[in-house]
Amino acid sequence: LPQDMENSFFMNVNDQVREVCSQLATDPQLQGGYNAMGFSQGGQFMRAVAQRCPAPPMLNLISIGGQHQGRVYGFPRCPGESSHVCDWIRKTLDLGAYTKAVQEHLVQAEYWHDPLKEEDYRKNSIFLADINQERGINETYKKNLMALKKFVMVKFLNDTMVDPPISEWFGFYKSGQAKETIPLQETLLYKEDRLGLQEMDKAGKLVFLGVKGDHLHFSQEWFDSTILPFLQ
């Protein structure tokens, strides 16, 4: 829908998550629990639903190309690389991703994570810094995420759209520079277990899958054999 496309750029993510939570809560068919799948930015948005809205319970979360530590450049499903909208958004992000106006009205800014401006990100990111426990520990977020049976993260091994691609497995740049990346297990988020990911990992609840191809490029055969079993 054109409105959905527009919302994926301009509707505050926190409002989107609230809206989805209210739809889930009132759907009689989902009250016993449901499986969730998010494509690209939908991966981190559905994780926010798991963390913020425990009823009805999310059973399994499948993130396909989601950017769980955010991203620095480019963004998924931008309609055409030469599009004026894409160019305008990129310029806006480069100039003022962490200003209040941009944070509140531009979806991509809400998970923009600049490793050279960590302090700005921590203080001013209205979405990602919150769900990633950057400003303190919300025990409810941790408890709700840990209730998942499985948290499946799919990374595209030839991804040219997400920078850094390891964000799809919850890794990111080493702080203060934008060259060397570290896996989730080396991040403070994991070492201090701020979100319960270390405990989930030890319990076998985290699943890291790699698929050859660029962003969101996968075959029906791969999807049927690799992803469908998690939904059964």
TrEMBL record:
A biological-process GO annotation: receptor-mediated endocytosis
Entry's EC annotation: 3.1.2.2, 3.1.2.22
A single GO molecular function term of this UniProt record: palmitoyl-(protein) hydrolase activity
GO cellular component, one term: lysosome
Name of the top EC class for this enzyme: hydrolase
Gene3D superfamilies on file: alpha/beta hydrolase
Any Pfam family matching the protein: Palm_thioest
Keywords of the record: Disulfide bond, Glycoprotein, Hydrolase, Signal
Domain of life: Eukaryota
Keyword Mitochondrion: no
Name the record gives this protein: Palmitoyl-protein thioesterase 1
Species assigned in the record: Acrocephalus arundinaceus
Biological classification of the source: Eukaryota, Metazoa, Chordata, Craniata, Vertebrata
